[in-house]
User: Which sequence fits this backbone?
């Protein structure tokens, strides 16, 4: 209830493909997405998933869906992230799966073996319900997909649903807790399940499929230059929604 107006009120969340959510099984689903803030991305997905399960298509209008939420939705986050502050710790109790980063900690580059216990915990969560993960492991765009996600897919064979989000880094601070700007268009596109041959697809092939699906493959930079992306960011920051006009349209 506290966060609903962040996606429908202060800002507007445009959703596409949420009808896919209603067709998914109760367990064994892995959502893979690009990442823009620590927490606002996940909270938005919770709203969209529950709204869809309550019969809404591409909309979170009418917050009544919160009275019967799907409780077995988990998300993966770095241990160092959820230890910073009271709210992250509360979110951890609400279903965050803490994992050790293998490449970075406290802002420094490191090299650490994958914690097998982390993979086991993700497997337990998949057996119990749905899991949201951000395979780049960072909010910086076009960073490489971490191979750990592909190993999880090979090992536990979940249904893999790609999600592409935008507008969150303009709406919120990096943590996704403080509202930075109002009137920003946010978007969430939920795509069809990835086609994966769990037996024969290599780790590298699965990584590449994820990169293309969440639109973070390096080839996207060849289509849209970094300068163009910077200009789009600048223009999007100026974008504002006319809520009075939107309300008039809804009334019509």
Assistant:
């Amino acid at each position: 209830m506290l966060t609903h107006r962040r996606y429908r009120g202060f800002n507007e969340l445009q959703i596409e493909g949420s009808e896919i959510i209603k067709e998914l099984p109760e367990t064994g689903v892995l959502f893979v997405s690009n990442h823009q803030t620590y927490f606002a991305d996940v909270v938005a997905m919770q709203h969209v998933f529950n709204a869809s399960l309550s019969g809404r298509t591409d909309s979170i209008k009418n917050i009544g869906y919160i009275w019967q939420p799907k409780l077995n939705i988990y998300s993966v986050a770095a241990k160092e992230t959820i230890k910073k502050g009271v709210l992250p710790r509360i979110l951890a109790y609400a279903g965050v799966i803490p994992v050790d980063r293998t490449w970075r900690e406290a802002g420094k580059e490191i090299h650490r073996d994958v914690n097998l216990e982390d993979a086991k915990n993700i497997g337990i969560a998949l057996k119990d319900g749905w899991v949201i993960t951000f395979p780049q492991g960072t909010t910086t765009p076009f960073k490489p997909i971490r191979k750990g996600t592909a190993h999880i897919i090979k090992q536990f064979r979940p249904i893999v649903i790609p999600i592409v989000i935008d507008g969150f880094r303009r709406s919120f601070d990096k943590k996704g807790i403080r509202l930075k700007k109002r009137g920003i268009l946010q978007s969430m596109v939920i795509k069809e399940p990835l086609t994966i041959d769990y037996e024969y697809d290599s780790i590298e092939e699965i990584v590449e499929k994820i990169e293309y699906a969440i639109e973070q493959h390096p080839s996207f930079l060849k289509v849209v230059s970094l300068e163009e992306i910077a200009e789009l960011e600048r223009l999007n920051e100026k974008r504002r929604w006319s809520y009075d006009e939107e309300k008039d349209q809804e009334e019509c």
